[in-house]
Design goal:
Shape: globular
GO biological process, one term: lipid A biosynthetic process
Number of domains: 2
Keywords: Acyltransferase, Lipid A biosynthesis, Lipid biosynthesis, Lipid metabolism, Repeat, Transferase
CATH superfamily of the largest domain: Hexapeptide repeat proteins
Structural class: mainly beta
Number of helices: 3
Radius of gyration: 23 Å
CATH architecture of the largest domain: 3 Solenoid
Number of strands: 35
Protein name: UDP-3-O-(3-hydroxymyristoyl)glucosamine N-acyltransferase
Largest sheet: 11 strands, mixed
Strand order of the largest sheet: 6-9-12-15-20-23-26-29-32-34-35
Strand content: 25-35%
GO molecular function: N-acyltransferase activity
Organism: Acutalibacter muris
Amino acid sequence: MDVKDIFDFLKSLHLEYRVVGKGNFALNGVCALNQLHNESLTWIRNPDMEKITGIEQYHNMCVILPGTKLPNTIHNIYIFVENPHSAFFEIVNSFFAKRQEKGQYIENDSVVLSSCIGKNVSVGHHCYTGKDVILGDDVVIEHNVILEGSVEIGARSTIESGVVIGLCGFGHYKDTNNVFRRIPHLGGVIIGEDVYIGANSTVARGTIANTIIEDHVKIDARCHIAHNDIIKRGVMITGGVGIAGSVTVEEDAWIGPNSTINNGLIIGRNSFVGIASVVTKNVPEGKAVFGVPARIVKDNTPNVYTT
């Protein structure tokens, strides 16, 4: 591809952009700011003169960035857009990402007892899928995944290796003899469409209701979603997060790495939980919280904290 292809692509997305620099040349790949190389596409979140000067040591570079001042003399192409993060990865996804069409297959060493399997579903090595599981079209189940009990996974969702969904959660009560007994888990897990669940994460089934993960939720590796949680549309949950039982995370919230959320809380829409925070109170809509315990520090501005 060449630089002109990027211009045409941005136009097709109806994205406004401004170009500084002249010429049209081939782009042979993408690169990060700390590993620059010639004839490549890159992007800058927070531009400064030092970064621009570094890029100008290379030739035939195309850079996606927000509005900023440039040196008087430049020899690369700079494309200014409102959201360089989104624009860059739209380009990468369309021109550079290698897609592997898996098609319909179930590895021979996996056990699939369910008969409710959609079209073009792939199941990797050493998986177990119980008889009550429902898999929508184009679902990808990677290796060593366990799906047990009443689990429904919507179309185009991806479950990475080592994930366990539908296990009983951690819940106990004391009987009349003052002995702990396990709470029965009668519910299931409902996962929407276009959901991503990262490696070695766990999702517990509900006790007397379902655990629900709505459409377009993205969950990083090593996360735990406890029984009765409701994770609403578009939520981003990053690595190592633990969410205790009966929590509701409202639409488009962002949960930072290694954060912990206490049981029964509501995390408001468009809110942000900072890295390694311990949330012990409800988080209002549109607020950013940080710390142990987490406290409100400011309003959350979309695309400021998120990556």
